[in-house]
Amino acid sequence: MDFDDNVSISDENLNEGNAQNFFGQLDQDVVSPDYVQKMDAVLFVIDCKKHIFQKHENNEKNAENPLKFEGINKVYNLDNPTAKQIREVVEIENQFNEKYGFADKETPLNEVIWTCSSEFKNLDKLKYDFRIFLFTSDDNPHSDNQQLRDQTIHQFKQLNDLDVDLELFPLEKETNTKFDIRKFYQDVLQINLDEINDAVMDTSEKIMEIQKRLRQREFKKRALNKILFYIGENQKIAVKIYCHLNKAKKPTAKKLHKESNKPLKKTVKQLCSETGQTLYDEQIGSYYEVGKEKVLVNKEDIQTLKQFDTSSMKLMGFKSRNKIKLYHNYRTSYFIYPDDYRIKGSSSFFSSLINQLIIKDKVAIVRFIPRQGSQVRFCALLPQQESYDENRFQQPPGFNLIYLPYADDLRSLKKKVPQKHIETSKDLIDVAKLLVTTLNLKEFDTRNFEDPSLQKFFSHLQAHALEEELPEPVNDLLEPKYQDFEGREEIIEMFNNQLKIELNENPSENDTGLKKQTNKGKKVKQEQGMQIIKKEEKDQKINLKVNKSKQKMSDDDNDISQITENELNQIKANEVEQNIISGDFVRLKVKDLQFFLQFYKLKTEGKKEDLINRALQFIADGKNKNDI
């Protein structure tokens, strides 16, 4: 089990304070290269041979580059492409000879690499990943000039020193022979010949992949956080935290000035409600209400109240894996990976711990605080071993961090609705099995399905930006493949007929459903009539109760308002209680539940399900409501 980033740093540079910060707020001495979210700086270097463009000249004639090398033309600066540039790129092939032309002699490759290096030197190495895509049909450049060949090899080594990633795209040679990577590029690019085959050297597939990647929005994989993992009091290792899934969303629209089309900046000002004057941060305070008294607190006090402990992960112990239930995972899980860059030996510890937990079928229980001021949580670490699928896609080794609920998070519904057990015939089960088997999805993978709403949005956005007449059609992959249903109509019809037979053999269990289908309108009228009758009966009861209350009020004028209000409220509370006991939660409204809880002096905050649980708990406890 191998882990990447096997780099160590001295203990002098690693201190407690720096290691426990988060989201890039680490000291520069302990920041690993992959922790900072970098942008790609990609240069496309194209060798314009005559047979590629089907011309009779060689390389570019013009020389437009900062170093004034002949035969090298910089079409665009290294920057985010504009909509105008994207439209112009499509026309370059047709206008190449008129706009750039071809040179009479071969352009030295070392000058091309030198020009690329000069472009990268103007960028910050900590913010960008430098990459070069080299398209060429020459597998042995400068084979007849050893001096130029040595200079080219030297320039490639300098690229390696600058951490520039160069990717080779072999093009079709003029003599229709295969591109031989062993002649030159094997040494300068440090390519393992054992991994080279015809599929790897297939440039057409790689170019199609580039075209797809250029039109696809990619998200940089980076660590979400870095913390220390404590094992005991003094032992600790460093870990990275990654997010498994992140919902792709449409970009937020930015507001522009209507006349100048410049972006607007939104500012927020706090105004005094009495004088209307602008208030600054030092003039604004906060308070907590305690016993009808306003206790003033400042920002430092609030931060101290929120902080439970420093951000870290501490091992509590181990439990059997079957103790972790599916319903325990009540929020998004994370992936934990060792970080040898900060503490050497973290990978070795992780590898040993994963193997032993898998052998003993156990999980680790940890106390987890992701960052300063976060709520402390109990979590389970599920071990994951390294594996590869048939497409050589790696499942990395590490731990899946599963959030465990507190006792306060678990819901306890006292009233359980009994479920009727419905017997199903063996014939219906057999037909259902046949239907499921014939319509089984083969090679199903969620990574092959794109969000059609996002695709449609970006398709229209692209058409608007590039001034295209019509947006590109969107292929909705979430539509059923009806061609797979062809030839299976008999099985579907068989299942439908068998289901009808099952319903006819058990009419008593399905009377309600049949009545809904045949006499839907009639049933609605009957229900409305029953509701009117019940409403009239309820009104009669209330009027009778009110009359009795009025008669009683005439005997005691000093307590008229109290008797009337209590009697009416008691009637309404009893009705709500009957609906709760009968399980008719649909008819219950939030205001009715709040009235019931308020009548018995209970808390009325929360959602509808919280109010129902609170009322059920109160009724189940059997408290004496008359004394409340």
Overview of this protein structure:
With 628 residues, this protein is an alpha+beta fold. It has 4 domains: 38-214, von Willebrand factor, type A domain (Rossmann fold), CATH 3.40.50; 221-248 and 270-410, Ku70, Chain: A, Domain 2 (Beta Barrel), CATH 2.40.290.10; 426-518, Ku70, Chain: A, domain 4 (Orthogonal Bundle); 542-627, no CATH class. 36% of the residues lie in helices and 15% in strands. Strand 6 (270-271) and strand 7 (278-279) form a beta hairpin. Helix 11 packs antiparallel against helix 13 and helix 17 packs parallel to helix 18 (608-621). The longest helix has 36 residues, at 520-555. The radius of gyration is 36 Å and the shape is extended.
Structural features:
628 residues; alpha+beta; Rossmann fold; Ku70, Chain: A, Domain 2; Ku70, Chain: A, domain 4; 4 domains; 7-stranded mixed barrel; 3-stranded parallel sheet; 18 helices
Looking at the structure, the CATH topology of the largest domain is Rossmann fold
Helix content: 25-40%
- Per DSSP, the total helix count is 18
CATH superfamily of the largest domain: von Willebrand factor, type A domain
**What strand order characterises the main sheet?**
4-5-11-16-13-12-10
Number of domains: 4
Highest-level CATH class of the largest domain:
Alpha Beta
Mean pLDDT: 74
Helix and strand arrangement:
Elements: H1 16-19, E1 39-46, H2 50-53, H3 83-90, H4 92-99, H5 109-120, E2 128-136, H6 146-161, E3 165-170, H7 185-188, H8 203-214, E4 225-231, E5 235-243, E6 270-271, E7 278-279, E8 286-290, E9 293-297, H9 299-306, E10 312-320, E11 334-338, H10 346-360, E12 362-369, E13 377-384, E14 387-388, E15 394-395, E16 398-403, H11 426-438, H12 452-465, H13 489-505, H14 511-518, H15 520-555, H16 560-582, H17 590-599, H18 608-621
Parallel strand pairs: 1-2, 2-3, 4-10
Antiparallel strand pairs: 4-5, 5-11, 6-7, 8-9, 10-12, 11-16, 12-13, 13-16, 14-15
Helix pairs in contact: 5-6, 11-13, 15-16, 16-17, 17-18
